[in-house]
Amino acid sequence: MAFELKILVWGCVLGLVHIFAAGQAKTRQYGRDWNVSARDAELPPPPSPVVGRLMRAQANYFETFPIAALLLLIAGLVPSSSVTPWGASLWFGARLVYLPLYAFGVPVVRTLVWGVSFVGILLLLWPPLAASFS
User: Fold this and answer.
1) What are 45-81's pLDDT values in tens digits?
2) Taking 80 as the threshold, does the pLDDT of residue 107 lie above it?
3) What are the distances in angstroms from CA 34 to CA 28, 45, 118, 120?
4) Is the pLDDT of residue 26 over 90?
């Protein structure tokens, strides 16, 4: 299996970690009865800071994951460049670090780490984009 496809698989696992972390935090705050309910009776109170950060980290992950996943798939199926493993590594490593930074409310560094993940996406994008012009 190509390296980029392995990163894609682990990116899917990380997506599940985001879902589980936010869900567990919400259940801890609102209780098990809320978790298993239809949630249409009344609005819950606003999320605690940690729950809110985990929900925003999850939303942020799933904003860029489809793009990264498609580019990882392209790179894994049509190997064309030596930069795509670097892009895959930067994207995944940064996204892995991003979740705890966001959960603990670490400012600035979190944004820099997001920027590194974006550079990873750009490295994944460059080869197919360049090929589209030839």
Assistant:
1) 899 999 999 999 999 999 999 999 999 999 999 877 8
2) yes
3) 10, 12, 36, 39
4) yes
Q: Which two tokens stand for residue 121?
A: 């996406």
Q: Which pLDDT score, from 0 to 100, does residue 103 have?
A: 97
Q: What is the Cα–Cα distance from 123 to 84, expressed in whole angstroms?
A: 6
- Structural domain containing residue 75: 3-132
Q: For the domain that residue 58 is a member of, what is the CATH number?
A: 1.20.120.550
The number of folded domains in the chain is 1
Element (H, E) at 105: none
State the DSSP string of 69-126.
Answer: HHHHHHHHHS---SSHHHHHHHHHHHHHHHHHHHHTT-TTHHHHHHHHHHHHHHHHHH
